[in-house]
Design a protein that fits this description.
alpha+beta; three-stranded antiparallel β-sheet
């Protein structure tokens, strides 16, 4: 049974592993510009303390993570071997519930699976870029979800 709860400092290592594994599996052609050690520190020192971070937990194993800022899904990652189980949808539903209004996010244009997922969950593409504004210099797309009235 999957439980969803707020992430705490002791979750940082597991959250980073889900992030890294999911990133590499989802977009293998995109070069992560930071080392794994840098990503682990960033998750520990920035993401968990500075964003509203949630984890999906199966027993004692973190299998998904969601990071929110007001009006934004900053990060949504599910362990590659757990995709297709509804974990991402559950985390995204939580983001919608907590948003109190429109919710935006970015994903890479090459991440076709993520794009299908967001579109199937009510997000609409608003903007395509050439990637000049992201660290990876990878073309991306901004999506928005708006609550129904």
């Amino acid at each position: 049974m999957i439980a969803v709860r707020r992430a705490g400092p002791t979750d940082a290592a597991s959250v980073a592993e889900v992030y890294l594994a999911s990133f590499h599996a989802a977009v293998p052609t995109v070069r992560l510009v930071h080392t794994d050690a840098q990503v682990r520190r960033w998750i520990r020192d920035v993401v968990i303390p500075d964003t509203e971070t949630w984890v999906a937990v199966d027993g004692h194993e973190i299998v998904g993570m969601l990071s929110l800022r007001p009006g934004w899904v900053e990060h949504l990652y599910v362990a590659p071997d757990r995709r297709g189980e509804g974990i991402g949808r559950r985390l995204l539903d939580l983001a919608k519930l907590r948003s109190g209004g429109p919710l935006d996010l970015w994903t890479f244009q090459v991440n076709k699976q993520a794009r299908r997922f967001y579109e199937a969950n009510g997000f609409v593409a608003l903007e395509l870029t050439d990637g000049a504004e992201n660290e990876e210099r990878e073309p991306d797309v901004r999506y928005r979800w708006e609550p129904s009235i």
